[in-house]
Amino acid sequence: MATYILRRVAWAVVASLIVLTLTFLLLYFTPDTQLAQLQFQAAQAGDDPEAIGAAYESYHGYDQPIHVQYIEYMGNMLSLDWGWSETRSQPVTTAIAEAIPYSMMYAVPSILISSVLGVAIGLYSATNQYTRGDYAATFFAFFGLSIPDFWFGIVLFVLFSGILGWVPIIFDTTAATFSLENLAQFILPIVVLTLSSIASLMRYSRAEALEYVEAEFVKTAKAKGVGDWRVLTRHIFRPASVPIATILVGDLLGIILVSSYLIEVVFGIPGLGTLSFEAIRDQDTSLVMGTVLLPAFLTIVGNLAQDIAYTILDPRIDYGDS
Amino acid sequence: MAVDNEPRETFEDVDWDDIDETTRSFSRKTIVTIGVYVLFAVGLLYDYVLKPSRADTIEPLGISLQALDWLYILTLLTILVGVVVPLYENGRMTRYYWQQFRKNRAAVASLLYLGVIFLIGSIGPRFLEQPTVDSSNAYQPPVFTSAPNWLPVECAGEVAGGSCHGTWAHPFGTTHEGKDILVSVIYGMEVSMQVGLIAALITITIAAIVGVSAAYFGGWIDAALMRYVDIQITFPTFFLYLMIVYLYGGSLFSMIVIFGLLGWGGIARIVRSEALQRREEEYVLAAKNAGASGYWTMRRHLLPNVSNSVITAVTLLIPGLILFEASLAFLGLGDPTVPSWGEVIASGRNDLPNAWWVSTIPGIFLFFTILAFNFVGDALRDALDPRAEGGDQ
């Protein structure tokens, strides 16, 4: 098992390096819009665009051969020097660090709610298969899976803040983290994010639990007179919890990263998504790269955690090295 | 006791050369299939090589085909050849699948809905002008509803009691730029279908080739292909699209191609694991024993037997792609020349309190299209995949 985990960690590192390399290559072979703009301005002002271009390239080190640039780029990325955000006049890492708390404020509650509720509803559906409650849960899951979260967010936002006036229209960054004000402005994002992440969790827990509902040991337990609750928690949930726990980390993370991007733009939350969106709009390339690479690294770490969780939680898996 | 007058044919008497002849000659279906593709290739060649570059493709009709249109035609042709014709030929199987599929009423309704969307989306844009900016026509409410009279610049319908009533001229109303929403929605149908179907075709093609060859050849080919898939899956697709669209700009064509070229990893894994199981089955071993080539085994024995799970997986992939396109268009990273649902939703975002219809109507279409694909995919899984029973209804 130890060898497996080591191999898995090594692969995560290699994957990160490959992602960085690909990003470097993408950037290297992309025509620089900023340079084109500078040259255009220079030409309009009567300066020599060639000279401006050369000065710009040597300032940024773009005139170096590719391997020098590559080593420099990788060194910078690994030492967390992710470049300078021109539009925000601060280092990219600082901008990201300032944005993360806002993303966490609704993502963490949403993850907690959707994992607890999602697993609970999934277990209920599995033990009450083909009942009205199960159909309702299935319908709810399809609804959550299919509703475009940015659209749902807009509709809720207009309904509750524009028409009913229950939640503030403009996001207030000065509100304390644990205050009613903050709850009011985060309640809708939490609802939308939970809805989009709970669906797959419900479906998955239902499918996993169904494998054990008819299992021999569950029948035996029932025959011995074990109560419903105990059967559910001890005999069905325990074996099903391993695969469920893994989807919690890996897949949920993926859904949340994408959904939160759009939700932040809709609700004007100054988190990572908005930061990235504004960077794209303002052509702030280093900030775009930083905010896009971060989710990629989070996914790598999430997949790593998922695989390691599997090995620790499920002793039945044999990795052939014990 | 009846006596056979004719000499019995023994194994040695069978003229194997004759049988080889008949099986090797092309059947009518193969000729038609190849003919259709050759016709397509000729058309493509004509459009890109022979005709003057600025002229319309079919001059007298004023039809101009872009790269995206050609790709869409190819996709539809392939669906015709690869799905519709086999279904028609194997009537018994089709009836069986349909019986299974029909059990799920929501899926039947969804299929009908998707068919209607596809038809309207294919025909509508041929006859309707693209919605144009017309500021005097802004904020017309949909038919049967009304809006406060100050909102539209010039109310197209009747004004009663200080509110402007919608007219049949704009059944779904207009945006703040005066674009007709019904027309935009119809154009959006085509966009969504193009995104879903073309990207799905590219995905299926690559995933099937990669998955089947990884499973069949094994060894270093398998290792190399699957390592590549590992890396591709590592990068969350949405952010990869975001980065590439940011760096290289997003025409609808390039967006769809990116979706197709980068999103096949998961399905290739499914194909591989399925094909690995099939590879060890008796009929594959028998085929190999009889001297079947690698290509023949993959084409005739592995591919058809993994196709069910591939079709199901792709049907469930399509809604995700449509949602991605809508999301990117909503963020303003889509193709500015094409009216897509996401773009209309974004354009009505700030007007929602007064002009609710601008964002709401395309959103409803988007929602139901995604829902319909999810329902159809779910029912297909039940109907096509006998192995996946029980667990997930």
Share in helix of chain B: 55-70%
Give the CATH superfamily of the domain at 98-282 in chain A. MetI-like
What is the CATH T-level topology of the domain at 115-131 and 180-384 in chain B? MetI-like fold
Oligomer: heterodimer
Largest interface here, residues on each chain?
A: A-B, 50 and 40 residues
The shape of chain B is elongated
- What's the average pLDDT of chain A? 84
How much of the sequence of chain B is in beta strands?
under 5%
Give me the CATH architecture of the domain at 98-282 in chain A, please. Answer: Orthogonal Bundle
Task: Please give a structural write-up.
The mean pLDDT of chain A is 84. Chain A has twelve helices and two strands. Chain A has helices at residues 2-28, 33-44, 49-60, 66-78, 92-127, 132-146, 149-163, 180-213, 216-223, 228-267, 272-281, 285-313; strands at residues 84-85, 90-91. Chain A has a two-stranded antiparallel sheet. Chain A has a domain at 98-282: MetI-like fold. Chain A is flat and about 90 Å long. By secondary structure, chain A is mainly alpha-helical. Chain B is an all-alpha fold and 393 residues long. Chain B has a domain at 115-131 and 180-384: Orthogonal Bundle (MetI-like fold). Chain B has helices at 16-24, 28-50, 67-89, 91-102, 105-127, 181-217, 219-234, 237-248, 252-262, 265-279, 282-289, 294-330, 341-347, 357-384; strands at 146-148, 159-160, 163-165. In chain B, strands 1-3-2 form a three-stranded antiparallel beta sheet, with no helix packed on it. The longest helix of chain B has 37 residues, at 181-217. Chain B starts with 15 loop residues before the first helix and ends in a 9-residue tail after the last helix. Mean pLDDT of chain B is 81; it is low at 388-393. Chains A and B meet through helix 1, helix 6, helix 7, helix 8 and helix 10 of A and helix 7, helix 8, helix 12 and helix 14 of B.
